[in-house]
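in:
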């Protein structure tokens, strides 16, 4: 039974979002996949800007979405009534036939590129949400799983998961990443998830080809907010399932980075507000609690320490395992935190930190001393590559690029992973959509939309937004729900130890290893750009989908 409006508002208040993480200091930390994508998890600003309208807008969006879900398929009629000129509207959905490679059994499938139009309570179109869906031929919708994939940012399109990990075609990144002039050529993806689930890649409004249909600042404020985003994407999932006869299917939500923050909230909203149950969540490189993110806070630097050690060891060719990092994790959450909390004026505490962190990472002692044992993220990235006049990527500390200003003590720089991959991934997505999917769109493709991240409303609460309580509530309400969280060892944007801190606070009945697992593999934020980690991701996902199918 759907929650009442009052109980829904109460749940939103309890979840609480904080605007102190409103804007990134540097736009190099942009989202997705990075899938990434947390446009700026490390240096999120702390300016408190109350935006009560975002909460009110979420309630209006929720009510409107419920009305739409009951109406079913009014999509084509809505396309004729929008305020955007007809030649700028997205085309009607196009479906094409394809087959997987012989190595994957030459399975036949249909690809559909299209959009769903959302409307307000007055029936006026508000936005088009674009998607690409893959459906294997000859399957029973009642038993065939379906996955909805979201990247992050906020402000990132789903191309990272689509062409980096899950889709039938992928862009070869290589272990050292991409460059802007790398060929935007897609090849068959042996690790596609299509053999065990149908796939729907979703671009939130303002990303990919998704757009608002009215020039309305209130709409932007509603959609570009924590609660509004959850409401809109929940409406999309409900509409897609209803209009494509998939409500009976086992359903899994997949999210990366900020998308990993989204999916527990979407799952909870679908359960309580839309009458749709979710069988499982696959969460990739997430940030589950923004209270752990701000640079300079003890937990933030402590959580990154095992990832820095993993990068130092991997650079020397040493194997990286959770067992091998157990001592570092214990130190980070124990003596390190104790000494950091004593403050930089306690010289003995700083000296102890410098000795241990230098021992673990090899970072320069003077560098560590100047920072009081809590080095800033941008300084660490510069320091890791300084001997070679390079900078390390926040997204994978093992990948470096040339430092455009090597004489500077610190400062902004283009990220060797995120920024370097934008051109080839954008070109690949546009070319594939037009040439292979036959979906010709007369509007720019937005891989990473910085305006969304800059204008994002994080809510009105004093504390930072978090998704741990939504995850707990969704899993408690549905004992059949299965969740896997996967991280890369050398990700400095969303280090795996942050997620461990969130999951460790869950009750044992929910954190049963049969229902909830944290897995860590070689690589960074988009660890799936590494062949062995992409295979590990696929195998892990297949196990979750099989379990979800059995329980449905």
């Amino acid at each position: 039974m759907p929650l009442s409006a009052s109980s829904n508002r109460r749940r939103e208040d309890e979840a609480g979002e904080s605007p102190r993480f409103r804007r990134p200091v540097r736009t190099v930390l942009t989202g997705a996949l990075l899938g990434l994508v947390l446009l700026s998890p490390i240096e999120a600003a702390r300016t408190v800007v109350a935006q009560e309208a975002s909460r009110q807008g979420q309630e209006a969006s929720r009510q409107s979405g419920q009305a739409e879900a009951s109406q079913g398929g009014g999509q084509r009629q809505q396309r004729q009534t929008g305020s955007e000129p007809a030649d700028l509207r997205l085309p009607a959905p196009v479906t094409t036939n394809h087959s997987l490679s012989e190595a994957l059994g030459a399975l036949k499938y249909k690809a559909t590129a299209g959009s769903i139009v959302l409307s307000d309570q007055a029936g006026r179109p508000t936005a088009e949400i674009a998607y690409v869906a893959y459906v294997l031929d000859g399957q029973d919708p009642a038993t065939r799983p379906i996955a909805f994939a979201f990247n992050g940012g906020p402000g990132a399109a789903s191309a990272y998961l689509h062409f980096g990990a899950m889709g039938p075609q992928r862009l070869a990144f290589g272990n050292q990443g991409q460059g802007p002039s790398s060929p935007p050529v897609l090849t068959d993806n042996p690790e596609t998830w299509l053999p065990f689930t149908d796939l729907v890649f979703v671009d939130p409004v303002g990303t990919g080809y998704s757009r608002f249909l009215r020039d309305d600042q209130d709409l932007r404020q509603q959609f570009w907010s924590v609660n509004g985003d959850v409401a809109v994407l929940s409406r999309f999932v409900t509409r897609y399932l209803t209009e494509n006869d998939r409500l009976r299917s086992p359903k899994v939500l997949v999210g990366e980075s900020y998308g990993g923050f989204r999916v527990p909230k979407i799952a909870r909203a679908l359960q309580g507000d839309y009458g749709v149950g979710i069988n499982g969540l696959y969460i990739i490189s997430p940030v589950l609690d923004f209270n752990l993110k701000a640079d300079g806070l003890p937990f933030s630097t402590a959580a990154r320490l095992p990832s820095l050690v993993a990068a130092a060891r991997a650079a020397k060719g040493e194997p990286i395992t959770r067992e091998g990092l157990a001592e570092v994790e214990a130190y980070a959450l124990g003596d390190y935190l104790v000494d950091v909390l004593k403050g930089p004026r306690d010289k003995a505490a700083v000296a102890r930190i410098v000795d241990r962190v230098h021992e673990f990472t090899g970072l320069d002692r003077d560098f560590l001393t100047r920072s009081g044992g809590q080095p800033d993220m941008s300084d660490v990235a510069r320091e890791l590559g300084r001997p070679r006049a390079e900078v390390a990527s926040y997204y994978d500390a093992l990948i470096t690029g040339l430092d455009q200003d090597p004489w500077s003590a610190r400062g902004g720089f283009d990220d060797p992973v995120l920024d370097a991959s934008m051109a080839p991934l954008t070109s690949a997505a546009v070319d594939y959509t037009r040439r292979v999917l036959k979906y010709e769109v007369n509007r720019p493709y937005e891989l990473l939309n910085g305006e969304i991240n800059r204008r994002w409303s994080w809510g009105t609460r004093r504390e930072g937004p978090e998704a741990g309580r939504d995850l707990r509530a969704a899993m408690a309400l549905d004992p059949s729900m299965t969740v896997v969280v996967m991280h890369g060892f050398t990700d400095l944007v969303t280090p795996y130890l942050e997620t461990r801190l969130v999951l460790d606070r869950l009750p044992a009945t929910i954190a049963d290893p049969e229902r909830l697992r944290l897995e860590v593999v070689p690589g960074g934020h988009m660890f799936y750009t590494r062949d062995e980690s992409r295979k590990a991701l696929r195998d892990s996902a297949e196990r979750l989908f099989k379990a979800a199918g059995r329980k449905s």
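note: The mean pLDDT is 82.
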